[in-house]
Specification:
Length: 296
């Protein structure tokens, strides 16, 4: 991170300033209005920033590191290209919920970097609001139940051969499918060149192809804007918000600590000031069904 210059709390405002949003999937349509209305901050998107080089949902390019690391790298790439001191980027991961493997979740992360203040903030959300799914089929006739569940055609699809066979020149990934005709062509081709005669049909999780993901991004963007609008009570710099949690909410039956969050730790993005707060929902104990002693 570059050396932060001294900025007074009064100067630490984003009204009328410009930040770069590192994306090629039209996330500015979701995040732009939030930052402009909430902070007076204008977002710009570099014309030739190919963020797919940092990983694709379709698998051709693997993510070159942990999501948080790639997220910050993406934001700084945009800052380098534009010369701006404010950078924003998002990164999404999709898969089974840790505690409920049969339910899919969307883990979204959103980064904000301010090199003038010397701060970087990463907000995140884990949401069950996702259409993430895939299926292997021989023809579009096998998609009768899958398509409505995925929100097709309002949500895009990706189609590929289910099992790659040699030579690799036959392997083709069809992206952004939003019409029955395009889906028919992609499934027929992919099944025809797959080693097992099946086409893999999956939801297109890129933001511009997935209104459900846009909804989660909007929620996370609102969360970050609110944090940037909150100032540290000690130094006055923007970015005051939740930074950690303390677990150990007691069981209402036996009184023993559980894994549930007991307190929230709020902190500053620049100075070391922190405050411990009770849960924002007011919960002071949890039922015995969530206790490892009462319900091992």
């Amino acid at each position: 991170m570059s050396q932060a210059k001294y900025v007074t709390p009064i100067e630490a405002s984003y009204q009328g300033r410009t930040a770069v949003l590192a994306t090629k999937h039209q996330k500015e349509a979701v995040l732009g209005p939030l930052f402009h209305e909430g902070l007076g901050l204008r977002l710009i998107v570099p014309a030739d920033l190919n963020t797919d080089l940092l990983g694709t949902f379709s698998g051709e390019i693997p993510r070159p590191g942990p999501p948080r690391e790639v997220l910050l790298k993406k934001a700084r790439w945009g800052m380098k290209v534009t010369g701006l001191s404010l950078g924003i980027a998002s990164e999404g991961s999709f898969g089974p919920a840790p505690d409920l493997p049969f339910m899919s979740v969307d883990h979204e992360m959103l980064a904000f970097i301010d090199d003038d203040l010397g701060i970087q903030i990463v907000e995140q959300i884990v949401s069950p609001d996702t259409n993430f799914a895939s299926i292997a089929v021989r023809s579009v006739d096998d998609l009768t139940e899958f398509l409505p569940r995925c929100g097709f055609p309002d949500h895009g699809l990706i189609v590929r051969p289910n099992v790659r066979q040699e030579p690799d020149m036959l392997f083709k990934v069809f992206k952004g499918i939003t019409t029955p005709a395009a889906l028919q062509e992609a499934v027929a081709f992919s099944a025809g060149v797959s080693a097992d005669g099946l086409a893999r049909v999956e939801t297109d999780m890129r933001a511009h192809m997935n209104p459900t993901r846009q909804r989660v991004l909007r929620q996370l963007g609102t969360q970050l804007v609110r944090r940037l609008a909150s100032r540290c009570p000690a130094c006055g710099v923007p970015g005051w918000g939740l930074v950690d949690v303390v677990r150990g909410l007691p069981c209402q039956a036996c009184g023993e600590d559980t894994d549930w969050v007991k307190q929230e730790i709020w902190g500053c993005a620049r100075c070391e000031h922190q405050e411990a707060r009770d849960r924002s929902d007011g919960l002071t104990a949890v039922g015995p069904e969530h206790c490892r002693w009462c319900n091992p």
